[in-house]
């Protein structure tokens, strides 16, 4: 019996199948460009080669999920695919959900009602649940919320300085995201370092196309960089991160842009892409950086400085210096340039970066890339799908 993990994005569907208590998936699948004529997908059994999926043109999320499952079932090892539980990555849980929840009609309705807070993700997340209900009737489903880990943050940290009635009426506050990843890597880092997870100070930097940083004190999130939406905080692949709140008004008046155009610009045309004018891919920018491209250098330098400034600020919520700083996500796990530049800005922390360890992401030192008596810098690969599978199994113990 297998646990199926579903991650429905705005234009994609990702699947992973797990056996109980196994951290590596039995199989994975992904369908991209959902509801377009360019829809495409692939699947993979274990660590084998990727195989193309047959996807219907303009297929919706349900059709994409069906195509992915059909591809997996075409493999002899999964021909008689039996799923005991389904776990869903749900981006926004609002203020209601501080832990994973068994899906029922009320929970599904709550997820749909959060669409104003997560317009890009809430409806696709709900569609994934509805599609799984049709495909696996009677199989229990669990919603695992990206925001849940951050529900431990105190009001003085999550409240914005806006009129109170706006908070009460519209739930306008800082929520934070990537919670599943931050929780997983923080606990894993504590395990690797021999720390008591319930009695330590950690900072986690999840760096990918989306980026966020979180302060974890005694096993709980106490501050994080993202806010009401995933746009707040760090510079990201295509997202600006923090900007002057009056920028919208300025661009509307001076550039004649609409609110929708400005929002799209800050979400899809800014960040590393906007600064460099080249790409949101850090691998491309790293090559250009070393080749002397000034725009690429500016983009990487801004990215790392802003990251370091955010990491330093998170120590306020920790009440002191961290025992460890964790790098994770595609950039955090693979870019020795970003790790090195970021730590160079944090001289007050007394990190002692080992250049050779950094080059290999601590391959021979359990992820540790620092040395000496200062705080530890460590690279911990994230495994959000396994974390969701683990949470799902906890609510479906059979």
From TrEMBL:
InterPro entries, per database record: Ac/propionate_kinase (IPR004372), Aliphatic_acid_kin_short-chain (IPR000890), Aliphatic_acid_kinase_CS (IPR023865), ATPase_NBD (IPR043129)
Uppermost EC category: transferase
Main location per the UniProt record: cytoplasm
UniProt keyword terms in alphabetical order: ATP-binding, Cytoplasm, Kinase, Magnesium, Metal-binding, Nucleotide-binding, Transferase
Cofactor(s) listed in the protein's UniProt record: Mg(2+); Mn(2+)
GO molecular function (one): kinase activity
Residues given in the record as substrate binding sites: 89
EC nos: 2.7.2.1
Pathway this chain belongs to: Metabolic intermediate biosynthesis; acetyl-CoA biosynthesis; acetyl-CoA from acetate: step 1/2
Cofactor binding, note field: Mg(2+). Can also accept Mn(2+).
Subunit structure: Homodimer.
Protein name listed in UniProt: Acetate kinase
Organism: Haloferula chungangensis
Gene: ackA
